[in-house]
Here is the input.
Amino acid sequence: MLNDPNPRRNIRVLVADGSHIHSHLLAEALMRDPLLEAIPFDSDSRSLVRAVTGLDIDVLVISAAVDEQPARGLELLRELRAVRPGIHAVVLLDSLKDDAVLNAFRAGARGIFGKSQPIDVLSKCVRRVHEGQIWANSHELALAVEALANAPTVRAVNARGMGLLSKRELQVVRCLAEGMTNREIAQRLNLSQHTVKNYLFRIYDKLGASSRVEVLFMTLSQAGPVSPAASDSPNGSDQATGPDEFAALQKGADAGLPVAQLALAQLYLVRSSDPQDLVHAYKWYLIAIERSSQARGLIAEMMTAQQIEEAQQEARAWLARAKGTSISSLKGDRVPERMSTINASADPNAKKQLGDR
Here is the structure.
C-alpha cells in the first residue's frame, strides 16, 4: 500500500494551565486524542508569545489564571494576538460566570471551557476551534452578542475621516462612555490603572482634548440634530443620531457625566416631538447643572484665589464673545452669580468619585 503523499498533520496544541504541573497533566490527557499533539508550557509566562511562534502552534489552551494572577492568562492572550491576530485560543475558566466569559471573549478566545468539564470534551473543543468554529454554549454566545449590541459606538476621526485612535484606545473610550472610573476600566480590560492613565493621556493628545469629558463630547456627540420625524422614544430609530448614540448618552448621563446629560437634554429639546421630550430635556439640564456645580466646587477647592480670578476673567471674555458684546459692556464687569459662588451643598462623596476617575 502506497504511503499517503499528504499525511494528515496532527494539531499542535500548547497547554498553559495555572501551574507547570497542571500544564503537564492536561497535555498528557489531551495526547490521548490521536489527532492532537499537546505540548506543556513550563517556561516563564513572559516567553509565551515566543513559544507559540517558535513551536508553530495551531491552538493555544490557556488558563485565565496564570502565575497565580487571576487575569494573567487573558493579558498574555492579548499580547499574543497583537503578534498573531489569527491565533486560535481556548480559555480555561474556573468559573463560567457571565463576567468571566465576557472577559475571555474580549481577550480573543475562540473557545470557552470550564475546568470542571470532561477532558474528552476539551479534545473536541480544541478540534472544533482549530477548524475555525466558536466553542461556546448558547448562553455564552448570547452574552457576547448582547455585549456587542450594547457597546457604545465611538467615532474618533480626523478631518480626512481617518481613524485617530487605536483599537485599545477605542476600548478605553467605550469604557468612559459607560461612566467607568480608571479603576473599573483597568478591571474590565485587565490593565493596571497606571496603563489606563497612559492610554488616556495618548487619547487626549490625539484628540486635542484636556479631560475625559471633552473626549466623550468629541467621540459620542458628533451626530447632528435629531430628525423631527424620529420615534417618540430615545431608543427609537433616529436617523441622525441613531439608537446606539442615544443609548451611549443615556448610559453616560445615568453614570453622572454632565457632558452626556447636557447632550441628552439637547437631543430631547431638538426633537421635541412629544410633550414629554421637553420634560426630559429640562430634567437632564437641571441634573447637569447641579453636577457641574458640584464639580466646580471641588475644582475651586484645589485652586488659589488668583487662579480662580483668572478663570473667571477668561470665562467672562468667552461669554461676552458668545453674546456678541464686549467685556466692557457687562455691568460693572461683575461675575455672574453662579460663577462667583461655590455650591456649599455639594455632594460630600463627589470628591471621592472625582478622584477615582
Q: What stands out?
A: DSSP finds 16 helices and five strands in the chain.
